[in-house]
Amino acid sequence: MADKKTEQASQHEHTHTHTHSHPHENTQMVLNRMSRAIGHMEAVKRMVEDGRDCSEVLIQIAAVRSAINNIGKIILEDHISHCIVDAVEHDDKKALEDLKDAIEKFVK
Fold it and tell me: Can you give the pTM of this predicted structure?
């Protein structure tokens, strides 16, 4: 009986401590895209400093926002494919709730 309680406590602890011990396949792709988006944003900053046309600046900001959204989609897909699959396998309801909260903030 004590072993069962210890096992249940261990399982309960797991539901609150999700570690990323598995590899994320798209880490380098995400980092590369982030570097490009940062470079693009720095170029937009220079455009503002140089007094470039507001319409041009807005178009470039839209391009940066699109790049960032695409980075978020890659991270979300990777998270669902790995972290959430693991969470479902371990009945980790907190990870699912955290995903719901993250999606809500991401799509705002």
Answer: 0.69
